[in-house]
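Entry type: protein chain
Record version: 2
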Amino acid sequence: MLLRCVVLCCVAGSDSLALRPVSPDLIKRGRVFREAMALILHAGKSNKNGYKTLIAAEYAGVQVQLAPNFEMGVTNKTPEFLKMNPIGKVPVLETPDGPIFESNAIARHVSRLKGDNTLYGSSLIEYAHIEQWIDFSSTEIDANLSKWYYPRMGYFPYLPPVEETAISSLRRALGALNTHLATNTYLVGHSVTLADIIMTCNLYLGFANILIKSFTSEFPHVERYFWTLVNQPNFRKILGQVKQTDAIPPVQSAKKPSQPKESKPKAKDEPKKEAKKEASKEPEKAKEEAEEEAPKPKPKNPLDLLPPSKMILDEWKRLYSNTKTNFREVAIKGFWDMYDPEGYSLWFCDYKYNDENTVSFVTLNKVSGFLQRMDLARKYAFGKMLVIGSQPPFKVKGLWLFRGQEIPQFVMDECYDMELYEWTKVDISDGAQKERVNQMIEDFEPFEGEALLDAKCFK
């Protein structure tokens, strides 16, 4: 009789595995109440954190419904939603016992609602290992994928050193996962557990959006594991047909949160006299607003106020672009004929963190992003960026021609990449420095004894 009255306290709505005596009548009433009301998941249809719960529900035989007409950025800001999660994060599970937020907690709850599944293993040690891999998936896989992917999509500031660190940490985590999966089909035991569901949903973000084949091929057991899981019927029912991305997304500009428009309540039943009085003020008010909103003249760039230079930057850029043969005799000679040391200055730059350049395509993307953000200086600058080396770590070095005798302050202020480089002004009276300028302009190889991985031009 005592054993019949001892149940996991999750029957009473807790996530703990501690044992607690509960009366049979309470168990019966609780079960009927839960079965009478479906669980409502507040999340978008493509939310990978929501997928965790939906897939777990398929394995556990629990009914979970998506909230109808959910709109991210709108629904989760309503007073009703904020009562369930005060900070407005998604997903949230609405249950008879109250709301639950945080995706892993929601998936845990759903997995425990019925005791006739193996999502939490069959022993205490398996339970511990499942929790171990859930934590590993969140802190080592999902966190580093997010630091790589979301800044590229413009949701967070894009910082190359941060991206490099995230990729390095992700590579280390996938290496550890790959070693474990070399002798295991699943993370724990011999069937799908909640750890596999959460791990696969986190890997899904990467495979679908940023982990290209050349990257994942370094981890063949992780690849086998991922494709095995996403093609299981319960996974496929929720995820559909999964395809691996064939390109790393380019860096996008930061997205600014939209500001809701304020609507002023209209006064009702105003006296006609007041209405006429307000109407008479409208033309005067409109005139005042127009004067306030009139665009102020844009201040001139300080570089436009410099004395005229004999060097016409566009002419040099055309010469550089149109010279296909005899580059040294035509383009390089033409550059020095045009160069005005009083109106322009030359600068070498060296990346400060070359030891972090361990992935070739990431290093190339880093340079491309820098050139993209330098677009604000296109009218006043010309640049060459070299990625050097046949093996990692790769070196990034550059040559820049700027209008004026110093690096423009507005470039230093608005392009954060500038702080990632050491800048040295070129002394053109030094023959060795002048020859280095020549070699960088013409993509001379080997450059300083090493092969060129790539050379990019800003013009």
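Comment: The chain has a mean pLDDT of 85.
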